[in-house]
Design a protein that fits this description.
With 99 residues, the chain is α+β, with helices and mostly antiparallel strands. The chain is 23% helix and 36% strand. It has two helices and six strands. Strands 1, 2, 3, 4, 5 and 6 form a six-stranded mixed beta sheet that branches. A hairpin with a 2-residue loop joins strand 1 and strand 2. It is globular and about 35 Å long.
Length: 99
C-alpha cells in the first residue's frame, strides 16, 4: 500500500482530510492517501487536532504517539505513528481501518 511507509521510528501514513463533514469517519482511499472526513473546520489548527485525536481513537493508541510531519496547512498530510509494540501489529491496525 502506497499510503503506508515503515520507518525506523514507526509508520508514516499519508492521509487526505476533508474538513467540515457531517461526521468523523474513515472514507476509504483517495488516490494514494487514506481519506478521513472530520467535523472540525480548517481554522486555528482545529482539523489537525481532531485528525490526530480521531486516528488515535481508531487505532486505540495514545494521541502523543501521533505527529503530523508534513502538510500542516494542506489537506494531504503525512502522519508519523510511533510504535512501542513493533511495526507489524501497528501496520495491521492501520490497514484494518479500510475494512
Amino acid at each position: 500500500m502506497n499510503w503506508i511507509t515503515e520507518k525506523p521510528e514507526g509508520v508514516v501514513i499519508t492521509i487526505f482530510v476533508q474538513p467540515r463533514a457531517s461526521k468523523n469517519l474513515i472514507a476509504g482511499l483517495h488516490g494514494d492517501a487514506l481519506k478521513i472526513k472530520l467535523t472540525a473546520p480548517p481554522v486555528d489548527n482545529a482539523a489537525n487536532k481532531m485528525c490526530l485525536q480521531f486516528l488515535a481513537k481508531c487505532l486505540d493508541i495514545s494521541k502523543s504517539s501521533l505527529e503530523i510531519v508534513s502538510g500542516q496547512t494542506s489537506r494531504t498530510k503525512q502522519i508519523l505513528i510511533r510504535d512501542a509494540d513493533g511495526g507489524k501489529s501497528l501496520k495491521e491496525k492501520i490497514e484494518s481501518l479500510l475494512v
